[in-house]
Please model this.
Amino acid sequence: MINIGLIGCGKISAGQIAAIDTIENAKIVAACDLSEENLKAVTEKTGARAYTDYKELLTKEKIDLVIISLPHFLHGEATCFAAEKGIDVFLEKPMGISVADCKNMIEVCRENNVMLWVGHAHCFNPAYMRAKELIDSGKLGSPISFSETRNMDYFAASRPRWFLKKELSGGGIMINLGAHCLDKMKFFSGSEIADIHGQVHIREGYDVEDSVQAFVRMKNGFVGTITLVGNTAAYSNPTTVYLTKGEIRISAGGMVEYCGCDGVFKSEQCETSGMKLQLKTVVEKLEAGDKTPVISGDYGLDIIRAITKLYEKSI
Ligand SMILES: NC(=O)c1ccc[n+]([C@@H]2O[C@H](COP(=O)([O-])OP(=O)(O)OC[C@H]3O[C@@H](n4cnc5c(N)ncnc54)[C@H](O)[C@@H]3O)[C@@H](O)[C@H]2O)c1
Model:
């Protein structure tokens, strides 16, 4: 049995709890949040012991794994504290708020011989897994480029306010949602990020960017454009992969459409959440005594390095 501590009982925790519920040999035994309301919602659902100080939870509880889903500026200190207690870590994306923050987490987890798994879940998402299978089959030729657009109201009242303070979030729509686009590019290409250029836009009076246009080049030559627009209520998130002999389109709803040179599309509806498979894989690995993460600290760092570069070099 893998006993889990949940630190951060906000929006993402519902999906995590639902996923862990489906895993036979995993249980959330302790939970922590500063918000009484969020904490109560989780402890009532799971029966977990309640904490308002995550350091107390990590010190008192005998847990095998901690799931950290805190505001981004706390990812580093919570991860390092858990590592120093010898507890394996599943850390929600984005890994941290700076390159130095991420490098420190990697170092401290390595020194303490604990697993550091960063929650970039796209390689566990059935729609993206199907796209990757099509790419790797070679039937559509070799991959050339990628394009993703994400339109939404990033400043909706339902968004927790810490997301809008750079000091707490590390940035706006790019570090929060552009991180998913970079995850997809890494997964589809099987390569690391070589370079990124582009422009971020910050509305007057705001602290973090609302829109982004970025051009990304991977080390193996795969390239892509990322367009993020946080100023509209109309949600859309289409992704396209162009190959030498075809094209793959993936919609936000999990529809995967693909065609060869004849231009005739076939379509398949896939599931869209990778959370269950991701956490099941984490638990299975730990039960087998394998602390090698599928998504490592170096993977998370590659994404943060690119985002930081975009922020610094925005034209
Ligand atoms: N993988 C995904 O698709 C996905 C989706 C949503 C969010 N996330 C990530 O999950 C993390 C959390 O996001 P969210 O949307 O759940 O945010 P949220 O604001 O809803 O939840 C964060 C929680 O942390 C609590 N908190 C803040 N400081 C604390 C402290 N010192 N000690 C204990 N609790 C504290 C807050 O009270 C809040 O309940 C972020 O890293 C976010 O980017 C990932």
